[in-house]
Automatic annotation (TrEMBL):
Its main location: cytoplasm. InterPro entries: SurE, SurE-like_Pase/nucleotidase, SurE-like_sf. It comes from Halolamina salifodinae. HAMAP family: SurE. Gene3D superfamilies: Survival protein SurE-like phosphatase/nucleotidase (3.40.1210.10). Nucleotidase that shows phosphatase activity on nucleoside 5'-monophosphates. It is found in: Cytoplasm. A divalent metal cation binds at residues 11-12, 42, 90. Keywords: Cytoplasm, Hydrolase, Metal-binding, Nucleotide-binding. This is 5'-nucleotidase SurE. Binds 1 divalent metal cation per subunit. It catalyses: a ribonucleoside 5'-phosphate + H2O = a ribonucleoside + phosphate. Belongs to the SurE nucleotidase family.
Length: 269
């Protein structure tokens, strides 16, 4: 069996250490081609452009656009023979249901599923200290080792084990790096339902904060066993098998409301 052709993208930008670490890990199990943002596109979700400039790059292509742009351009034009899309490795974890839609890394994987191309989003949890600003951190390439090794393992084994017969894409998150010689254990999870956004307004400035990150660093989180965030806090690699949005939950009461819509207007006239 020939090596899989892997379209590699991210949202931190093609020059990020995490992207280089992932690309090199995937070289061990396939034929990777970079189609990644020219600059940082973190937290843009599934935003797309109408046109974007493409630059040739030593690993493939750098696109002046979003992660979704990269996936569309890659599958449709730049790497049309892609067998799989792998997005990452993201600086910072992508955990919890409410994070899925805003993450450019996860959104790239979601976009691939609409082309019926299996995908993996991979992220590395990077804790901060009280005197560190996450945006200013530039972890070295070695920081991403556990996440990238897990991604390469899944790429190497997922097709033969029919993983993507049941899931459209996998969301992979590695715990904080440590010096242990053995791999962290891997566990299958579901996205945590815990929502932890807060907002403060001082009359002039609005400050939005995701409070979950401070709680993760202390381990003080209410997430249950089996959730992605609990796994990462417990030192495990989280793998969530997910389907592309959106699921449909049809029920009788909504059917009744829809059926009565036209008649409701008639009674108001």
């Amino acid at each position: 069996m020939s090596e899989p052709r892997i379209l590699v993208t991210n949202d931190d930008g093609i020059e990020s250490p995490g992207f280089r670490a992932l690309y090199e890990a995937l070289e061990e199990v396939g034929d990777p081609v970079a189609v990644a943002p020219y600059s940082n596109q973190s937290a843009v979700g599934r935003a797309r452009s109408f046109e974007a400039t493409v630059h040739e790059y030593d690993l493939g292509y750098a696109v002046e656009g979003t992660p979704v742009d990269c996936v569309i351009a890659g599958i449709e034009a730049l790497c049309p023979d892609a067998d799989m899309v792998v997005a990452g490795c993201n600086k910072g974890a992508n955990l919890g249901s409410y994070v899925m839609g805003r993450s450019g890394t996860v959104s790239a994987a979601v976009e691939a599923t609409f082309f019926d191309v299996p995908a993996i989003a991979v992220s590395q949890y990077v804790p901060t200290t009280a005197d560190e600003e996450f945006e200013n951190l530039t972890p070295p390439k070695e920081t991403y080792g556990d996440a990238c090794e897990a991604a390469a393992y899944l790429v190497d084994h997922a097709s033969e084990s029919d993983v993507f017969d049941r899931a459209d894409y996998l969301n992979v998150n590695a715990p904080a790096p440590d010096d242990a010689p053995e791999r962290p254990p891997m566990t299958v999870t579901e996205p945590s339902p815990l929502y932890a956004m807060s907002a403060e307004f001082d009359g002039e400035t609005l400050r939005l904060e995701d409070e979950v990150w401070q709680r993760m660093q202390t381990g003080n989180i209410p997430d249950e066993e089996g959730t992605d965030r609990r796994a990462v806090v417990d030192g495990e690699i989280s793998v969530s098998p997910l389907t592309a949005p959106h699921t449909v939950e049809r029920h009788e009461r909504l059917d009744e409301l829809a059926a009565a819509y036209a008649g409701d207007r008639a009674t108001q006239l």
